[in-house]
What does this fold into?
Amino acid sequence: ELAIEKLVDCLDMKKKIFGLDDERVTNVVYTLATIYEKAGYHDKATDSLAEALHSYKMKQNKAGSVKVYHALGRMRSSPDERAAAIECYKEALKIRRQIM
It folds into this structure.
């Protein structure tokens, strides 16, 4: 809980300093999503990952997009979400191949 609180504070500061569209803000959003996931806040993690993915795509940051798709795939590992997980991993792989 303390880590989440501090990251939210960090995110607020970065938004004020750099603006909402800055990649440093997106990196904190992604990190916050991974902490939410580890803490069991699946919905908050998914929302944060969606926000990060949108921002990475807008900035054409392929490496960032790959990270997010991989994290989304990992989060969708339950049997009823397996097809969605596979799609996330396929998208991550497709983008990764473009980078190479």
